[in-house]
Amino acid sequence: MRPIIHASLFLLSLLVFACSHDHENGIDPEHAPGYLQHHPVDPESGLILVDTLGYPGNHPTDPVTGEVVPEPVRDWKYVDQSNRPFGTEDLRGKVYVADFFFTSCPTICPKVKSQMLRLEERFRDNPDFRLVSFTIDPKRDTPERMTEYAAKLGIEDFDRWRFIHGDKFEIYDLDEDYLSVALENSGAPGGFDHSGYLVLVDREGFVRSYASGLDEEEVTHLMEDAQLLLDQEDGSAR
């Protein structure tokens, strides 16, 4: 049995070594978990940099250099669950995570919201962190109904976590900026399709990272990405 124990210890040491990466070494893309694939790659080493954030998604590129020219999320302004005007202008200088949901969702929303609650708990004492949940069913999800929904989740701070009510078709377009999917589908459970993504946005309004709200490990990594941005007071994490 002793050789097996030694082998197990050896494998464990490899795992520890692999997890104790830094900015200079990074991770080989072939062996990196899927949720790291949207991190930038060091042009010299070809390794994924885990302590630096890039710009995931479909951004325009410079026609001459081919370099990505990132664009921020488009400006929007609607009302929150307390019927207060709220929009991108109110989020400038804040790091936030956004998701798309509807209160009568019978499938993924409860799981996704449980992960949003993890984020709320992790960063509840940080004044620069926010959560934003857009309803994709504004006809039924009135501000009053979303207030009841938020209360059932146990949310007490309606300034830190905003539930957004706005024009349905505008929000269906807006979801593309947040790398999400939100649309009506009579064949889908509850009548809507949505991705369940949690999307991290920096202080200047640029999407910087994302995770599946159905995968606890991915959300744990998203927390690390959020901390990177929060540690950069002037937005210099870019």
UniProtKB/TrEMBL annotation:
Name assigned to this protein: SCO family protein
Top-level taxon of origin: Bacteria
Residue ranges constituting the Thioredoxin domain according to the UniProt record: 67-228
Cysteines engaged in disulfide bonds, as pairs: C105-C109
Lineage: Bacteria, Pseudomonadati, Bacteroidota, Saprospiria, Saprospirales
Family: Belongs to the SCO1/2 family.
Ranges annotated as spanning the membrane: none
Database matches in Gene3D superfamilies: Glutaredoxin
Binding-site residues for Cu cation, renumbered to this chain: C105, C109, H194
Entry-linked SUPFAM superfamilies: Thioredoxin-like
Signal peptide as annotated in the record: 1-18
Any one Gene Ontology molecular-function term assigned to this protein's record: metal ion binding
Cited PROSITE patterns: PROKAR_LIPOPROTEIN, THIOREDOXIN_2
InterPro entries per UniProt: SCO1/SenC, Thioredoxin-like_sf, Thioredoxin_domain
Organism: Neolewinella marina
Keywords linked to the UniProt accession: Copper, Disulfide bond, Metal-binding, Signal
UniProt keyword Disulfide bond, yes or no: yes
